[in-house]
Structures are given as C-alpha cells and as structure tokens.
Amino acid sequence: MQELAVALAFSVGACAGGGWWSLRRWSQARHLLDTPTSKIRSAAQGYAEFYGVLEELPEARICGPLSGKPCLWWRFKIEEYHSDGKKSSWRVLERGTSEAWLRLVDATGECLINPAGAEVRPMIREVWKGNLRHPRGPAQGGLLGWLSSGKEYRYTEERLQAGQPLYAIGDFRTSGGGRQGLDLAAAQGEVIREWKRNFAGLLQRFDSDGNGQLDEPEWNRLRLAAQLEAEDRHRQHSVLPAQNHLGKPAEAQPFILSNAGEDELARRFYWQAAGGALLCLAGALATAWLLGIKQF
Question: Rounded to an integer, what distance in angstroms lies between the CA atom of residue 137 and that of residue 273?
C-alpha cells in the first residue's frame, strides 16, 4: 500500500509539473513572437524587445571566476564526483551568477540591462574536469594534496562576451532627456515628506509666528514652496542625457537575455511545451491506472 501511495504521488506530481511547464513555455513563446522588435531610441516605455550587440562598460573589467577569461557576464557551477560502489553522482558544491550590468547597443542608441531575475542563455558554455576544488586555486602539496588527489571535480562556466549579438526582452524605461512627464501632486508630496524628516528645520522655515506648529496659512506656503521645488527638480532632471534601462517586468512576463534569436528561442520553447504536455498526459494516465488498481 505504501509503494502504491508513493507511485501515486509521483504520477500526480508528473501530471501537475508537466502541465505547468507546458503552459509556461507556451506562454513565453507567444510573448516572444507577439512582441514587436523595437529600436532603442524610439522604443515605447514598458515591455519591449531588442536586438543588438554587447559592448563593454567603461568601468567594468570582468573575468570568469573559473576560467579567468575576460567577459561581460558569467555563471558557474562546481561539482564533486561521489561513488559508493553501487551508484555514482555529481554533487553541486558551489554555484554563482554575475550581477554586473550589461550594455546593449543598436544602430540608434544604447541600453543598460540589469540581468537580475533574467533567464540568461549564453552561447558560450565550457565544461571541464580537474582534481582541485577550484580550478584556479594553488596546487596542494604534502598530506593535503595526497588526500585530495583522489577527488574529481567538474566545472561549468557560461559567459557573455563583448561583440556578441544579444536578444533582450523585458521592461524598458527611459530617464532624463525630457522623456518623463511630471506628476505634480506625487512630486510635491515627495518633497514635503523629505522636508518633514527634519521637522525642526521645517518649523524654522515656515512657522512665521513661532508657536511651534503650522497653521493653515503656513501650510499653504509650505505646499507652494514644495510645488516650486518639485517643478525645479523636474526641470533639472529633464536636461540630463536620456538613459535607457531594461530590467525584470513587474508582471509575470518573460525576461530573457539570449545570444540566440527570437525564432530559435520560440522554437525551443514550443518543443519544451510539447514535452511538458506529454509528461502531463503520461502522469494523468498513470494516475488513472494506479487509482484503478487501488479500487481492486
């Protein structure tokens, strides 16, 4: 009975997981194909798709943590081989992902990308093995080297490099350059909240009768001063050069950075959706069969 319950749990899990994966990949493929490709300079604010070339940021000098090769972004994994004579497996010891921003350039402009939360699919993926936990670490000698000589490690490193093509889809925003409108009420409220953090200074500026509180005329003068301050800050911000940013959408929309193009990605996602649907169907059939056995 216990074995039947375990098998039933696996079949239900396969059905649910396969269905979820199929719907997710199908939805992502539709988002990719239904979102038009934009040029950076003329792109509308919000969810957008771009093709361009990766270029270095002037202040960024990044190398892959395992290979030491120069790159713009990396992801790595270190695994250790385990075997007890009956079964063997690779156990993950370390993994990590770069948090460095990326610079995407097309014929019309450039966009800075925050890769946090993105599904990144690099063209470069290197896998190799060694007998040191970290491939760039110093060689171990003496007793410690002898004890660790029998261990085997596998290293995986993925990288994005300058000059590579990049397909990017995510939430696009532009600041500065006169692109942002002024929500005067919100900006005024932000200025007042900022001034309230130094309430003594606020009283010194607007408490004209010195009674330690702000009456209606004084509040009116404060609001007018905050409005003028908000308008002045907006004017100063508008003359700054426009800066474009791409990041993770607030809604459940795909955020993808890939060296492969839209058509190739959509094709892969459709195949993965089909695989998930087959797993869901197999799980459903297995569940029905196991429930039939249980009744008998």
Answer: 41
- Domain edges within the chain: 2-176+241-276, 184-238
Residue 72: alpha-carbon gap to chain centroid: 15
Structure confidence at residue 178 (pLDDT): 52
**Prediction pTM value:** 0.69
- pLDDT confidence of residue 9: 77
Q: Return the HEC string of the chain.
A: CHHHHHHHHHHHHHHHHHHHHHHHHHHHHHHHHHCCECCCCCCCCEEEEEEEEEECCCCCCEECCCCCCEECEEEEEEEEEEECCCCEEEEEEEEEECCCCEEEECCCCEEEECCCCCEEECCEEEEEEECCCCCCCCCCCHHHHHHHCCCCEEEEEEEECCCCEEEEEEEEEEECCCCCCCCHHHHHHHHHHHHHCCHHHHHHHHCCCCCCCCCHHHHHHHHHHHHHHHHHHHHHHHCCCCEEEEECCCCCCCCEEECCCHHHHHHHHHHHHHHHHHHHHHHHHHHHHHHHHHHC
Contact 177, 241 (CB under 8 A): yes
Residues 236-295: tens digit of each pLDDT: 766 656 789 999 998 888 999 999 878 888 888 888 888 888 888 888 887 777 777 655
Run means of pLDDT, 10 residues per run, the chain, 296 residues: 71 83 82 87 90 88 91 95 85 93 93 94 94 72 50 94 94 73 77 84 80 81 87 72 87 90 82 86 78 63
Q: CA 248 to CA 244: how far, in whole Å?
A: 14
Tokens matching residue 204: 């010194």
Structure tokens at 50: 């771009």
